[in-house]
Amino acid sequence: MTNTRLLYLLALLLLMGCGASREEEAQEKLSEALALRDAGNFNLARIKLDSILLTYSDLSEESAKARDLLAEININEQERNLAFLDSALQAQEALLQPMLKNFIESDEYGSETVLIHRRQRPENSYNRSFLRAHLNTAGDFFISSRYHGTEWIKHNQIRVYYRDQSVSSLEVEEDGFNNRRFEDGEFKWEIVNYKEGKDNGIVDFIATNYDQPLRVQFRGKKYEYIIMERFDREAIRDAYEISFLLKEIAHIKEEQARAREAIRQFKQ
């Protein structure tokens, strides 16, 4: 009985001695992480490497390899992100370019560069009543109502309508900036800006119904009525859509910058 127990213990010790060493176990896990990286499974590879760094922290060589491979994976992931962002940027710019054909860049009308529809330039529109699209190169967008006449109507609101459909803006009180008036001899001008949602859905209404003969009511102490020119409707629709593209392009470029900075950090 005693001999049998001794033989069992010797066999068990022999089997234990033949088992994989911790170095071999770590190397095997490194190989698994590398295979996951090559397959593009960056998250799983990263989890595997984090486990190696936690479990085999006392093995300096294997830990160093794990850290190097982790840095490579992070770089590969950011490079893949950059490739996707480059493709997305090209797609957005391809959509943008044909939409800009009727707009010009100008820095002549204020401190920032703006995009103005060719038919709505101030020199072409100073003596008419209309709704103007305002757009800058950052994608900020709003509309304004511009009244021209021989008497004040002191308007602070507009209503856009077609048949039985209509949308009214919120009122904009006179403040010398978003609601201002000036005159030159017998002619009067009134300009009201509808920023930060003050249009109350008018922009969406115009963009959706740009192909209809939309009418505008200037509402104040008195009233003025116009039928929108087709190019004014198209200017608002196009500027509205361009604003989304410009903001998306700016967002993509910010993401590209972050990815490049991350790659630079990982390579240090």
Salient structural properties:
about 270 residues; alpha+beta; 2 domains; 6-stranded antiparallel beta sheet; 4-stranded antiparallel beta sheet; 10 strands; about 25% strand; rod-shaped
Structural notes for this entry:
The protein has 268 residues and is of the alpha+beta class. It has 2 domains: 20-96; 102-252, no CATH class. Helices cover 51% and strands 23% of the residues. The strands form 2 sheets. The protein has a 6-stranded antiparallel β-sheet with strand order 1-2-3-4-8-7. It has a 4-stranded antiparallel β-sheet with strand order 6-5-9-10, with helices on one face. Strand 9 and strand 10 form a beta hairpin. Helix 4 (60-99) packs antiparallel against helix 7. The longest helix has 40 residues, at 60-99.
Describe the secondary structure blueprint for this structure.
Layout: H1 2-18, H2 22-38, H3 42-55, H4 60-99, E1 103-106, E2 114-117, H5 122-125, E3 130-136, E4 141-149, E5 155-162, E6 165-168, E7 179-184, E8 187-194, H6 202-208, E9 215-220, E10 223-227, H7 230-267
Helix pairs in contact: 2-3, 2-4, 3-4, 4-7, 6-7
